[in-house]
Specification:
274 residues, alpha+beta, six-stranded mixed beta sheet, five-stranded mixed beta sheet, 7 helices, 13 strands, 38% helix
Amino acid sequence: MRFSTLLVGLLWLAEILKSEIKMKIIINTILIIVISLTIINCSSQKVEAFKPKEIYKSNDLIVIQIAENSFIHTSFLQTNDFGNVLCNGLIVRNSNEAIIFDTPTNDKNSEELIKWIQETLKCKIKAIIPGHFHNDCLGGLKAFHDNDIPSYAYSKTIELAKENNLVVPENGFRDSLLLKVGDENITAKFFGEGHTRDNIVGYFPSENVMFGGCLIKEIDASKGYLGDANVADWSDTVEKVKKEYPDVKIVVPGHGEYGDKKLLDYTINLFKAQ
């Protein structure tokens, strides 16, 4: 009797142990599945990383999307010294609103850009911000004013526009400007002289995109037009820009190919005193 009772107890204990082993196997299997799914999801996110693409092109205007909410607009300027030059600006958007850095080079091209943003991006344009007083920044400013789009510029840009009988931006700021585009911020800031006495830098923090304008050069670019430049201060000014935005991922120059913070280093070295 005692032996049979012991045998039953052992069989019962064995069933319990089997159940615990099965449970451990089940738990381990679930953990393996969860870890595998996490790895697959992370891998798929890397594969689906944003790829820049040209999304609009006409004879006078090109738009390239460089991030989910950032776009380069490029128009053309015929010059005596450098031929037909491609001139960049930046569009940033959020929650059906957009802000533009630099106008296209004339009113006709600006009208085309305004129409494209309103009809294709379905965005209200909250502001246009010329980066300095040259035509590749505010040559199409009248078209924005005609469409009731407010303009903002560094106080020195307004002063130089008046001196040169150009269309004058409506709202001035000293040193820096902060505006909302949807739920996000953009900044425009004067760091010092370089390409001109009034060149500013635009920044879109949510995507770490910088519009350097003509203060920043594309890789392998020459020094370009220096008629209004402060060559002595240029490198120091860009050093300040680099220090201010250590997390920048995309840098858009006023002319040529965009890139990353290497454009800042290239510009600094280009204008360093020999």
